[in-house]
Amino acid sequence: MNASLFDYIKSGSLYALPHHAISRVVYKLTRIKSPLVTPAIKLFSKAFKVDLNEAVFTDPAHYKTFNEFFTRAINPELRPIADSALVSPVDGTVSQSGRIKAGRIFQAKGQDYTVRELLACDGATAEVFDEGQFATIYLSPRDYHRMHMPLKGELLEQVHVPGRLFSVAPHTVKTVSRIFARNERVIARFQTEYGQMIMVLVGAINVAAIETVWDGLVTPPKGKQVGRKQYDAGQVVLEKGEEMGRFNMGSTVVLLMESSDPALSEALKEGLTLRMGQAIS
Length: 281
Known about the structure:
The protein is α+β, with helices and mostly antiparallel strands. It is built from eight helices and 15 strands. It has helices spanning 5-12, 19-29, 37-48, 66-70, 115-119, 123-127, 170-175, 179-182; strands at 92-99, 104-108, 111-114, 133-138, 146-148, 153-161, 185-192, 195-202, 209-212, 216-219, 227-230, 237-238, 243-248, 252-257, 273-274.
């Protein structure tokens, strides 16, 4: 879909904003315990059409802070894990998917970016994915915000890459060049039965924190240097469908697969709504 003039106007206004300052304020506000939390949750749920009936705890009054509500657990019976090679790691909407071509990933019409800049890695690591495949999935404010494993994997490395915090709403993806390789992100690289798999957890404005289950809160603080953590064989092994992290406010996940087999489903077209655990291969 082509970007409109209005898309460019909305995106252009973001450049001058103090992304990290705004997001750190949101971080503090969403962790305040207050009598206003329950009314805020009800108002947010109505505005964004959040279906609290899917949550483990359906009563807004159960949540002591807004962040507890935002990172709420989902009823596992409503998210069965499909008997397929790959399943969706999140609830969200497909932004793009397909083959990685000569080390480049398609973002939007007329725009792409390289695996190497996305992963902030050396050429050898990037080359592993040169002929692989990818799926980019956007999590809106109404979605479930925990990320799960699309298949069983053994953690090799976690990387934190500082960067901007542009919104990752559809209008900015269409208009801000290389947005996923510019925004702050947490990268988790796994070994799987199909070769290496990477989940890139992309930050965005108001995304006040990104967590992984093995390392807890990764950001904030923002930091100024790329941070890398290596993991020994067998140190962290996660099963298909197991939780691997969460966003505190919404954002995007970019899934990279080294191999083109099993192939991502041809049904993964722009705008397709996914549910965690749904078959994507």
